[in-house]
Amino acid sequence: MNLIRLLNKLFLLTLIYSLLIFVVSELFLRFVYSPDLVVMRIQANKYNSDKDNLKGVFLANKLAFKPHSTAYLKNIEYNHTAIHDKFGYRNPCFNHEKKVEGFLLGDSFVYGVGLLDKEVINCQSNNNTQLYTIAIPGASALEYKKLISISYKISNLVKRDLKPKLGIALYMGNDFESLMKLGNPNFYSQKEKEREGFVKPIMEELNKIVSKNTFLKNSYFLSLVKLTLLPYFVNHEGDYVRNGTGDTIYKVNYNKSYIFQNILNGLMVLKNEANKYNFNLDYLILIPAAIDISNERLKRDRKLSRFEIYKIDINIKYDLVKKACKELKIKCKDLRYYLTNEDYYERDNHMKFSGIKKYTPFLYEMNKN
């Protein structure tokens, strides 16, 4: 009985002292000394948003949204709706009376997160070319393979050319590893390997709780703790590092032959899948992550994600994909040469309408028959 009382007393004292340490540390970091890195983290947290209903209208078993549904996307940098057509995709300017010259598959960059309906790719045609986009925010190369068969089904339900063009927009920030996975089912990203233990999943759940609570995510003390632990729980090993939004950057001493073979095989899988459904994989659009074209963003993310010490090269992923495209005779367009830092939202990292306007003219040109 005395032992139980003693343990209860110790627990209560531990709780009180922990709370006291938290309060004193929080006040000190807020009003006495605020490290620049903590301030940057707090500012970045303000842009975190979970205030949209995309998941609520998404039909995972069909890889499509509910037909004729409307999604609401809200972020501190944008606030807009997204209308889906009768097939469950975002093509607000689709004209059923016109032929479809091509299909473009992709993720949130093709879907148009951060863009008004009138600003999305489907609405940028200035001639008779009509491009139908099939895009899902968060999709990867694994989903793109499945979307090819959906393209075939839709192509039989709309007016189209005898053989429409087929293109895939790869977001080079985080599609690279899924393309390797497609080419090598035994490939596991560092993130997947980390999840095999019990520590990583627990830390991820705790991080979700902190990120969704207004008070906790704006706590200076918790932000400092998170930044201190980050090097131990975020992948800095293997061939690449990651920033806070999941974009990967490869180290200069990466395993070149192994990675290239996986990428080549992955593109071959996509090409064969396209042939299976009477398409050619006509082209790839390489959409860069903002850090791939902005040194300032790269410097910022080096600090926030704590990978300052590693020698990295942003060109590695692009060089390998373009080399694989050349071997497989697939047209490959690298958008880094057309976009600037101002074409991306500052914190959300999605593309603004200014970026869409820059590359859609030659995108439509590639879909002409």
Descriptive notes:
The structure is a single chain. The longest helix is centred in the first third of the chain and has 30 residues. The mean pLDDT is about 90. The chain has a five-stranded parallel beta sheet with strand order 7-6-8-11-13, sandwiched between helices. With about 375 residues, it is α/β, with parallel strands linked by helices. The protein contains 13 helices and 13 strands. It is elongated. Strand 6, helix 3 and strand 7 form a beta-alpha-beta unit. Helix 2 crosses helix 9, helix 4 runs parallel beside helix 10 and helix 10 packs across helix 12.
Write the layout of secondary structure elements.
Layout: H1 2-31, H2 36-45, E1 51-52, E2 58-59, E3 64-65, E4 70-75, E5 78-83, E6 100-106, H3 108-111, E7 131-135, H4 141-155, E8 160-171, H5 176-183, H6 190-194, H7 199-212, H8 214-217, H9 220-233, E9 240-242, E10 248-251, H10 256-276, E11 283-287, H11 295-304, E12 312-313, H12 316-328, E13 331-334, H13 353-366
Parallel strand pairs: 6-7, 6-8, 8-11, 11-13
Antiparallel strand pairs: 1-4, 2-3, 4-5, 9-10, 10-12
Helix pairs in contact: 2-9, 4-10, 5-10, 10-12
Taken in chain order, the helices and strands follow as: HHEEEEEEHEHEHHHHHEEHEHEHEH
Helix run count: 13
Helix content: 40-55%
Low-confidence stretches: none
Oligomer description:
single chain
Q: Proportion of β residues?
A: 15-25%
Instruction: Name the average pLDDT.
Output: 88
Widest sheet: strand order? 7-6-8-11-13
Shape by Cα distribution: elongated
Distance between the termini: 85 Å
**Alpha-carbon Rg, integer:** 23 Å
Biggest sheet character: 5 strands, parallel
Structural class based on helices, strands and sheet pairing = alpha/beta
